[in-house]
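step: validate -> pass
step: tokenize input -> pass
step: predict -> running
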Amino acid sequence: MTNLKVISEDEVIKIMEDSWIDGIDIIKKSFIERGRGKVILPDKISQIFDSTTQNRINCMPSTLVDENVSGMKWVSVFPTNYKQNIKNVNGLTLISEIETGKPYALVASTWLTKFRTAGVAGLASKYLAKKENEIIGFIGSGEEAKMHFEIFKLLYPELRECRVSSRTNKSCIKFVDSLKEKYEDVDFVICNNDYEKAIRGSDIIVTAISGQDTVLKAKWIDKANFYVHVGGLEDEYEVAFKADKIVCDEWDAVKHRGSQTISKMYQDGLLKDEDIYAELFEILLGKKEGRSSSDKFIYFNSVGMSYVDVLLAKYIYDNSSNFGKVLYI
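step: predict -> pass
step: emit ->
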């Protein structure tokens, strides 16, 4: 008989409540372990139900050998869910130890997926963005955009202005209303569907949309030093061409994804392997330099790696002494 602890979404959020910096450190550790060759990473299985909308369910396994943990994240990504006011992303992570192979925790991972995605971008920014940033601009105003704002505000307390644009005024208002009381020192500017207004003059820019549309135009990027590409097809090809450096969490995973801008550019023969400056672990391990004095604009693209999810799930379990329900299976 195996004891399996089931940790709910609300419990995950409580465990992480005052531990966001610790969570980002866990994210960093997972990439370092990958760079050290201590991660087993089978291919992700993605079941795409609609090639246009990219509605899909992903099965993402990995093992961190020195951490004695193997796991599998099962996550659905349905960009069309916004039409029904349902979360776009829903996920679970199952983890086992690798001495006997026994599973020991099932962790709700919808919130953790948001945190991981934004946390990876925040971690990358500490090496790739300028040290001080005052204005952040968003195209997209959903849950992922909100999490990115909170992570960046945590890492860059000097942020004083947040510009948000989206398809509708309603979604922009919802974004601002959910954040303005907590961040009274920030001026939230609603740009509605004027994406250019959100981008011009921003130091950091983030695209986090649920559709497949080239909403970000290169000609708008005037002051921005760091761009976070969150999802699929979000920017025109000229944005990548404009970058001094393109950095990915893992290029091999990105280029086989198919739906992201730079993966499409690769498939169209417009980007080559050598055009990708670095993978994130290369910078964390000092194998390649991050931002240099000559860099003006850096493009960061992440596809989402399961070893990050697995180590975050283990962190949740390790800190769950007062949480979770044990099942006997």
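step: describe -> The chain has two domains: 3-112+307-328, 130-303.
step: cleanup -> pass
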